[in-house]
Amino acid sequence: MEENILKKFTTAKFLSFAIGFFGLQFAWQMRIILSGPVTEDLGADPFIFGLIWLAGPFTGMVVQPLIGALSDRTASVFGRRRPYLLGGALLSALALWALPNSELITNYIGAALHIKLPAVGALLFAAVMIWILDACVNIAQGPYRALVPDVVPQEQHSIANSYISLAIGLGSVFAAGTAPFLKWAFGYQMSINAQFIMAALAFALGMIWTCIAIKEHKIHVNRNEHREKFSFIKSLKDFFALSPEVGKICWMQFFTWIGTMCLMINFTQYCVHTLFAVPDLSDVSEIVKASYDMQVLNATNFSSTCFAIFNLICFVVAIPIGVLSVKYGNKKIHILSMLSMAAAYLGMALCFNLKAVALLMAISGIGWASICALPFAMLSQYIKPGTEGSVMGIFNIFIAGPQVFVCTLVSWIINKCSFNVIGGINYHWEYTFFIGALCLILASIIASSVKDKTVESN
Fold first, then answer.
1. Which residues contact 456 (CB under 8 A, 6 or more apart)?
2. DSSP letter at 396?
3. Is the Cβ–Cβ distance between 354 and 347 less than 8 Å?
4. How crowded is residue 350: how many other Cβ atoms within 10 Å of its Cβ?
5. What is the arithmetic mean of pLDDT over 292-297?
6. Residue 384 pLDDT
7. Which of 65, 265, 364, 420 shows the smallest number of beta carbons within 10 Å?
8. CA atoms within 13 A of residue 121's CA, in its CB half-sphere
9. Which of 187-201, 231-245, 396-410, 419-433 is the least confident region?
10. Residue 34 and residue 269: Cα distance in Å, rounded?
């Protein structure tokens, strides 16, 4: 039982609560935008790139349920959730620094050991750094979501999740927009290394701020009781026993995140290879790579700009979506948002005009704002006190699991859809948006069958 009644959050307190997620999303957005060019330069083709992306779903499916359950039964002077928030942020910062320096680090290791490491060593090291980064982001993310029902009154859960959505949008805007802005305003091109260091600082400092500003309420933790009940299978059964609607929300989330990750994983490569017509550079000489440096840089900057627009819209509409969901119900607003995103996907699959793609990314940002908030608000209505971390950890399986589909089958489809161009071969990266649109439409159909508890109670 809580020793203190939860007090309503003010706007200032919501902002302090959300700034840690701002840093988390800043780091995650940098990983989304730049991991493709980094790993392709080290020799990764589309399928290998997809396999490297498996880091996210596998660590998410394993780490978040485990850390969520552990945080539920953690009793320390720092609270239940804060040790995981800080630990995940600081370890992620180290991985963010190491990732773009993979070749330099492996060369140094080889020289120190007086051996010549194979060329693939740098790619393997980069893959390990991505796995560590994704694992640590998941270590922080699950307890962060569980912190909402811990410290925020139930009637403000939708608003709290909307502030997280706002932080996701704003963090992504800063992450994606800083390098293009500096290039446009001052003619200065930030190096990839500098962008990753910036992300590391944002994640660490943002999470430290939230951990200092938000006080966790003291909750009695019965260690023996939790030890007896700490079984994944039992937790899974208890999770689906919460309500018949929980299963529907999970299937909705499953297809939603297939659609979402089709964009997140492949958009930068779509910009480089489809919009800017750069051939595949994973298996060409350094001289050929160098000849495309400027095109790749321009394409990466365009991708960053589009992600900045995408997340700026998420930032702008995050709070209005929360307010509208209180008035009209989570389900209705979420369905409309997902359908708008599906329509934008179809536009990107068929139209390769740069201005049109930027506009379609803006429309997609509406769906992203809803995805970041409303499914969690829908689920939180069924959470029993004391199980917040476990529930959010299990729910993350239906976010992480779909990514396996995108990283394997969708990547395999793209890898098989090659065609010859001047300078080598290229791939139909736009096919990812057809698949993503279909999955978002399926998610909307499933969402329409969910009984909105908030609406029913009115």
1. none
2. T
3. no
4. 11
5. 85
6. 75
7. 420
8. 13
9. 231-245
10. 10
Q: Per-residue DSSP letters for 8-50?
A: PPPHHHHHHHHHHHHHHHHHHHHHHHHHHHHHHHTT--HHHHH
Name 2's bridge partners: 219
Pairing of strands 424-427, 418-421: antiparallel
Instruction: Domains for the chain: give ranges and CATH numbers.
Output: 11-214+224-457 (1.20.1250.20)
Distance CA 381, CA 370 (A): 17
E strands, 150-242, are none
The full DSSP string for 360-394 is HHHHHHHHHHHHTTHHHHHHHTTPPTT-HHHHHHH
Buried/exposed 63-100: b ≥16 CB within 10 Å, e otherwise: bbbbbbbbbbbbeeeebbbbbbbbbbbbbbbebbbbbb
Report whether 140 contacts 95 (CB < 8 A).
no
Quick one: DSSP state of residue 2? B
Give dist(CA 406, CA 392) in Å, integer: 22
Residue type, 96: L
Angle at CA of residue 139, ends 138 and 145, nearest 5°: 75
**The token pair that represents 443 in the structure block:** 């998610």
pLDDT in tens, 298-347: 898 899 899 989 988 988 888 888 888 888 888 999 999 999 999 999 99
Q: Which amino acid is at 92?
A: S
